Amino acid sequence: MLLGFISIVLMTVDHQFNYLDNLRSMLSLGLSPLQHLVNLPIRSARDVTENLSMRRTLLMENQQLRDENLVLKVRLQRFEDLQQENQRLRLLLDSVGETENQVTIAQVMSVDLDPFSRKMRLNKGSQHHIKAGIPVFDTQGVMGQVVQADLFSSVVILITDPEHAIPVQMVRTGLHTIAVGTGSSTLSLRYLPNTADIRPGDQLITSGMGGRFPDGYPVGVVTDVQRNVGEPYTEAKARPAALLDRNRDVLLIWPEHATAAPDAVGALGTSHKNTDSSTPEEASP
């Protein structure tokens, strides 16, 4: 009871005259380290919680950025692939020069490089008005011709197939001959007399004879000439100009005597006229 009365008196006096301010300040200063120690675990726990939450947020943001970066990289690869494809198609169309013949582009599905059968399959067939006999090109030159057209695909015999022969002409001399497939990566030039002016490096182009292949397109380059004493003919080999095993896109050019495809890419400028369209070429020698 007495302590209560004394407390009330002290509180009243302190409120009226502020006698205990100095004492209160001294006590507060003395207890400050103790208060800090008491609050330290609470503050530390709060800091740890905030750090963990921030770390978790940063990890999530980092993973999100990594995911977005991966998506962008994949999309960029596709974009670059589309750019390269557009460039290939542009080069493919440019490679045929100026022609009134109808042309269309197809993609290579598979290539068969068996020594006894050098063929490839395209992703377009009779549904796209493709039929046997239509010549096939890449950006470098002649690849071969269609020998079979299914509904949604077609088979092309390559110029290196042993069953394929194509009339050619030498750019330097104008000499005509036949380039026959060997079943390997070379062409054999037939029926060359020993007096023929031919040497390694001579360029071969389509002659247009037979009416199947338009004239003036690259076929190959002479790589070897063997003149046999006592033999009536010279043996020569040539390397195909076309990249027979490294193409994704090819170009088909309708011969002038063939019916053009309504959905073909279209005519390109003025014509490459064939020198003789009376007799179609055969795929075999």
Automatic annotation (TrEMBL):
The keyword Coiled coil applies. Residues 263-285 are annotated as: Disordered. InterPro entries: Cell/Rod_1, Cell/Rod_MreC_2, MreC, MreC_beta-barrel_core. Gene3D superfamilies: Rod shape-determining protein MreC, domain 1 (2.40.10.340), Rod shape-determining protein MreC, domain 2 (2.40.10.350). Residues 62-102 form a coiled coil. It holds the Pfam family MreC. Residues 276-285 have a biased composition (Polar residues). Residues 108-254 form the Rod shape-determining protein MreC beta-barrel core domain. One of its GO terms (cellular component) is plasma membrane. GO terms for biological process: regulation of cell shape. It comes from the Bacteria. Keywords: Cell shape, Coiled coil. PANTHER family: CELL SHAPE-DETERMINING PROTEIN MREC. Involved in formation and maintenance of cell shape. Belongs to the MreC family. This is Cell shape-determining protein MreC. It comes from Candidatus Venteria ishoeyi. The lineage of its organism: Bacteria, Pseudomonadati, Pseudomonadota, Gammaproteobacteria, Thiotrichales. The gene is mreC.
